[in-house]
Amino acid sequence: MMTNKEIAKVFNDLGKIMELHGENPFKIRSYSNAYLNLRKLETPLSEMSDAEIAALKGIGKAIVSKIRELESTGKLESMEKYQAVTPAGVQEMLQIKGFGPKKVRVIWKELGAESIGELLYACNENRLIELNGFGQKTQEDLKKKLEYFLQSKDRFRYASLEAIAEALKESLQKKHPEARVEFTGAIRRRKTILDNIELLISNARNLKKTIEGLLNLEKETENIFYARTEGNISVVIYTCEDSDFGSKQFRYTGGKAFIQNFLEKVEADDFRGLKDEKAVFEKAKLPYIEPELRDWEDIISLAGRNKVPRLIEEKQLKGVIHAHTTYSDGLHSLEQMANYAKEQGFEYIGITDHSKSAFYANGLKPERVYQQMEEIDKLNQTLAPFRIFKGIESDILNDGSLDYEDDVLKDFDFIIASVHSNLKMDEIKATRRILNAVENQYTTMLGHPTGRLLLSREGYPIDHKKIIDACAANGVVIELNANPYRLDLDWTWIPYAMEKGVKISINPDAHSREGIHDIHYGTLAARKGGLTAEACINTLSVEDFAKCLGC
Q: What are the domain boundaries of the chain?
């Protein structure tokens, strides 16, 4: 039997979804009033007669009928009617406190966002500030609400947990300076999507008391503590003796398939009692395999042939490619973005504001393209040897063409071709569309190949092999978009791209100065895919990058 509060909530939700669809305001108000009055009612509605309910303030016969419908079926036919024509993600937006149906309607109808993740990504790209009823302050406030909402979910993007995990690790180490504290499990393998934070700690006295002071302890077994943060993030803490730390680290880092393959293919009797993890590999007569690579199916075989790739390091990146400015939807000016990149130690930046078809992002018409190019020329005179390269993120249109005429395209130093519209394509259409763009003589780089948003949008299906092969044939670089919502190209396709000789570019897709630092997450994903410095185009010096572009 539904409680009064549960019934009241249904009326509140019905009022919201009706307002979202612009229905009769008098009916909406009646359902809102029903919610306010029913939720405070002490006597269970199931124990009241129809007449008694109808006599309540703000309750009429129509609402009484709906209450009885809920009691008998647990649902409302009228609610189901609206739910059937409203994307699930839009319905989820209605549950965010302080984000009313009218604003959700604007987001849905004018911005086209149909999930929390898409909306948060739009906030990060400053898409909301030009919408009616929104602004910078509203956008920032909404962004915080959305991040809180997503944090309550059971799965997390790596970037959402990294800082929390680091702080927890630091706190444990501070409380137990005598102990050894390290990440383990999926977070140590740098998986893009995580279910929890896992740590391994050795020789920590009175650890339970520490955990109870830092976290909400849920369960304890012989050597494992299960807990949650205040933000409801699952934390697993393994304990061991310091003399066995390497063996336990190897085991808990996993993954399961890697451990199984290792034990099946390696001839050694016992890997217990090893203080350092590298000793496990030495005992197995194998080169050390970085944790990021331990999700590869064939990594043991590669190690046996001494073919483990030497992974790229973030410090090897010399250029920032794919950055937006106030010319389109960026937060900072061209000069500010360039100066910041220079201050961070980079040798160059490739400015790639949105092209003319991206009306939602204040895309550049040809006259504004040339205005920006003039500004770049002037800044390059003062910032040298640091250099700004003239780029554009050109929309790939439905037929695969780019959205400028050739006489404009030829004037850019480089062009990132990306799909931003009409994302609901089947594999054949999506692949053909992208192949046409890759075969365009002016395309330098393919941007975020699938258009995915992690935990929010799967992305359109593509034939990765055909597209990578086409990039190889046409000398087109593939972007690994470092925005933690994208990380697209997926790391699993990096080995094939490297095999085909296709260069990868780790691009922050920065819409602000701070967004440049997303290169960090892109590098972690690149390492997981086995990317080497030699296979990454923005490890090139400014001179070599310019030669590569022919400018």
A: 4-86, 156-304, 314-549
CATH code of 314-549, in short, is 3.20.20.140
Peptide bond into 255 cis (omega under 30): yes
Which residues are bridge partners to 261 per DSSP? none
Q: How many CA atoms lie within 13 A of 52 on its CB side?
A: 9
Q: Which helix (H) or strand (E) segment is 16 a member of?
A: helix 4-20
Classify 218 in phi/psi space as left (phi over 0), alpha (psi -120 to 50) or beta.
Answer: alpha
Would the pTM of this model clear 0.85, i.e. be above it? no
What size, in residues, is the chain? 551
CATH topology of domain 156-304: Beta Polymerase; domain 2 (3.30.460)
As a whole number of angstroms, the distance between CA 318 and CA 322 comes to 13
SS3 assignment, position 505 = strand
Using DSSP, state whether 130 is helix, strand or coil: coil
Q: Identify the residue whose tokens are 């137990």.
A: 176
Along the 551 residues of the chain, how does pLDDT read in single tens digits?
788 889 999 999 999 999 999 999 999 999 999 998 888 787 899 999 999 999 988 898 999 999 999 999 989 999 999 999 999 999 999 988 788 999 999 999 999 999 999 999 999 889 898 888 888 889 998 998 888 777 767 889 999 999 999 999 999 999 999 999 999 999 999 999 999 999 999 999 999 999 999 999 999 999 999 999 988 899 999 999 999 999 999 999 998 899 998 988 776 667 889 999 999 999 999 999 999 999 998 999 999 999 999 999 999 999 999 999 999 999 899 999 999 999 999 999 999 999 999 988 899 999 999 999 999 999 999 999 999 999 999 999 999 999 999 999 999 999 999 999 999 899 999 999 999 999 999 999 999 999 998 887 888 999 999 999 999 999 999 999 999 999 999 999 999 999 999 999 999 999 999 999 999 999 999 999 999 999 999 999 999 999 999 98
CATH number of the domain at 4-86, please? 1.10.150.110
Q: DSSP 3-state assignment of 266?
A: coil
